[in-house]
Specification:
It is a single chain. The protein has about 250 residues and is an all-alpha fold. Helices cover about 80% and strands about 0% of the residues. It has 15 helices and no strands. The termini are far apart.
Length: about 250
């Protein structure tokens, strides 16, 4: 419908207005989830969360609502919260999309061994899980295999060139291999593809800080914090740079 077209164009405010009207006229599960998803894309958790929870109250096993809520919690950095919606129940067939997200959650919570096994299984079963492939590439990178990481990330980008997570991780791989110029391009690409994603701004801040472009770095850290107020790395970096700036001024 019209809301989808607006969302595809990146007009999230227009899509929200359209879906709000749809929900008022016809509060079907489909319309409420479309509105919740759009709020989630804009990271308006206070409005998205109650909508997802409302659907889950009526149907505790609603797949799209569980995945949507898990995605929202992951975007907010609440990985333990996300995990509760992704774990398969006793005797329940594991859902590939849920397992992909569970692998990502384990990766972010510092359990790489668990995450690599889960993500490799998901990617082998369903190569269309681009975010799982991206996270797997990043885990290879963190494990010290930069070549394997770049291959996985480049393959994922060949399938979906405008994926913010893959672009972010490719930036890290390029930077680790000493290619700061292309890394910067990749981080900026990630931020452009998803303007609500804090992480590329934090990564860009680190790169700019390392290359002595301190004022630009500060702006990126500030943007990261605007998008995700609980972003600890960006908070610490700003504190550090604030200190450095005032020390210079004295």
């Amino acid at each position: 419908g019209y809301g989808e077209a607006l969302k595809a164009k990146g007009d999230l405010d227009g899509a929200i207005a359209e879906y709000e009207e749809c929900v008022t006229l016809s509060p079907t599960v489909e319309n409420r989830l479309a509105l919740a998803d759009t709020y989630a894309k804009k990271r308006v958790a206070a409005k998205a969360q109650p909508l997802f929870l409302g659907v889950l109250k009526e149907d505790p096993n609603h797949r799209a609502a569980k995945l949507g809520l898990a995605d929202l919690l992951m975007a907010m950095g609440d990985y333990p919260g996300a995990e509760t919606y992704l774990r398969p129940k006793e005797g329940e067939e594991a859902d590939t999309a849920a397992l992909a997200r569970l692998g990502i959650v384990h990766s972010r919570r510092g359990r790489p061994d668990l995450a690599v096994t889960e993500l490799e299984a998901v990617v082998a079963k369903d190569p269309a899980q681009i975010e799982a492939r991206a996270e797997l590439g990043f885990l290879y990178l963190r494990g010290g295999d930069g070549t394997k990481a770049r291959k996985v990330l480049s393959d994922a980008l060949a399938v979906e060139p405008r994926n913010a997570l893959t672009l972010l991780y490719l930036g890290h791989a390029l930077y680790q291999q000493g290619n700061a110029k292309d890394a910067e391009k990749s981080f900026r690409g990630s931020a452009q593809v998803d303007p609500t994603f804090a992480e590329p701004h934090n990564a860009l801040g680190q790169l700019l800080e390392a290359t002595q472009r301190v004022d630009e770095a500060k702006k990126e850290y500030e943007t990261a914090l605007k998008l995700q107020p609980n972003h600890q790395d960006a908070q610490l970096a700003l504190k550090r740079l604030g200190g450095a700036a005032s020390a210079k001024a004295e």
